[in-house]
Batch of 2 targets.
Target 1
Amino acid sequence: MKYILLILSSLFLTVCSQTISILSPTSGTEITPGQDVTVQLGFANSLTGVEHVSAVIAMINCAGAPCPSDASDTLGIPLFAGNYTPELHEGNLPPYQNFTVTVPSNLAAGTNMLTAAHFVLIGVSAVPVLQFDNVTVSTPSSAGTRRETSIRGRTVLV
Ligand SMILES: *[C@@H]1O[C@H](CO)[C@@H](O)[C@H](O)[C@H]1NC(C)=O
Ligand SMILES: *[C@@H]1O[C@H](CO)[C@@H](O)[C@H](O)[C@H]1NC(C)=O
């Protein structure tokens, strides 16, 4: 029993300390509709086996209302969905992968939310874990032209 508890608690710690994080853009960054933005998705280095399955980067158009508090209800408008393979680049940052995505051109002015979801298998028994992160960004009110929403996303190979 003690042994099982030990395994469970170390598994819990493992799952909690290894999580997806949006390193860039940072909270409060100005995001302009229709423009490309580099999203830096990091995952803290670890000693246990981790198999990254996929990631989604999305934008919630909060449209002047408070942004939702739970990403498991909605991710918003998907900007990228696909493989996630973080690598160690700069030593002061956790392993990450850069994605260049296009900000939807109909994004409302004000506070909006960039969200990320990550599906990962952790440990030798491949515990399936779905994790989220988000940053609030600010969209300036501008006379920018309103075009069709772009759901185009592309990966920057590094
Ligand atoms: C955004 O992140 C905060 C802090 O981790 C969390 O409390 C909130 O539920 C998240 N919201 C969404 C929509 O993911
Ligand atoms: C990833 O993007 C950030 C922010 O644009 C940049 O500073 C960094 O050099 C990029 N890293 C790689 C490996 O391209």
Note: The first helix runs from residue 2 to 17.
Target 2
Amino acid sequence: MAETVFQQCIDPACGGTADLRDTAFRCPRCGGLLDVAYDWNRLPVPTSLKHFEAKAANRSNPLDFSGVWRFRELLPFAPEPALVTIGEGQTLCQRADAVAQYVGLNVGGLFLQYEGMNPSGSFKDNGMCAAFTHARLTGATRAACASTGNTSASLAVYAAASDTRAIVFIGSGKISYGKLSQALEHGALTVQIEGDFDDALGRVQEVSRQLGIYLVNSVNPFRLEGQKAIMYRVLEALQWEVPDWVVVPGGNLGNVSSFAKAFSELHALGLIARVPRLAVINAAGANTFYHLHENHGLRWNGGQFDRAKIDTYYAALDASGRKPDTLASAIEINRPVNLPKALRALDRCNGVVRAVPDTDMLDAKAKVGAGGLGCEPASAASVAGLRELVREGVIDKAVRVVCVLTGHLLKDPDETVAYHSADAALFDAKLGARGVKQVAFANRAVRVPNDLTEIVRAIERRA
Ligand SMILES: *Cc1c(COP(=O)(O)O)cnc(C)c1O
Ligand SMILES: [Zn+2]
């Protein structure tokens, strides 16, 4: 008899499967990506999403308190005693009217899903608790990742909390101090290799295979199971009404893949009546997905997508020596590992891709910050991309949109200080040198002599 939970190749024509406990995270038949698959008929699925409402109130049970595991019937791959939690997912989906006006939506139309409130300060914790749960099922004692920063921070925190050895691969010079400080402070073995993120990800997969170390990059389908909960919480906040659009920054394309899986499963289970549309926002300096989907017409095509288009594009990147280049380090990725899953996601949710310049991202970030939510540059790609899509008329101003703010402001304070600074040398060093010419919403500190009258005058003139 077939298993109730297993891993399944995303290519319907391949049909390859792997055991629940397998940790290769590659289809044994074709080498492609895997999904966590369930035989829902043999699992207890609630008949209405309202079932989950009472759980959030039951704070004394850590599994109900967790913003991931209180939805455990929707990611039922492990028994309750195996579930790992450190209180992830206590996040907010907040209506943001000033930002709505900025992007051109009607008042009341925009919600910001703020994932900076997670234990390690980014959405990655939603996935990491699920990956660590799977790691525990497999008996792993060491876990590794390659990271632009936030995955390593999350890995380090979960490893420290669960007696696991964390090993982090980072590229040289591309990690913010906020994130690096977390990996170091929480005791991860941090391996800095010469090269960028894409190089580091290639190596960590080889090393994990060779040494039998559990891999927590987003090729790990169990991580993506945990990230589905971000969308469950969005629905919860909207009283189970499906928004018209969900907009998310795109790096390795794990989130978008995970969100589409969440919505298609809910739809198939009859728990929602329709799926939202998805928009993925690349940085202009790391825009592989945008190029392939929007300029080269690459489509999922039932799993028979045109691999040659991808190979040709990567060969051209190599030939020109072009490296990803954006201030949004969390999405500074040219070879997104989840590209095929993301194509499927856009196919299922009628999605689009856009790419936004760093300047637009930083301005959007300042607007979000002025509204009270502090996010890092990559997160604000969602808001900058939404603004572009409204301007194009792709997103109507009268609809309801959720932008995911993926990480906390304090992850990357250097760029924020430079953005607001009146110090031209600082601006040039941090932003000018990376192609940012001018910014729209700088909140300058005011210089005043140490004199009461002058100080009072300076304040009264401005506040
Ligand atoms: C990891 C990360 C992303 C990219 O998410 P993907 O799932 O890899 O597309 C975006 N923003 C932040 C803050 C991140 O840490
Ligand atoms: Zn396969």
Note: The CA atoms of residues 67 and 89 lie 4 Å apart.
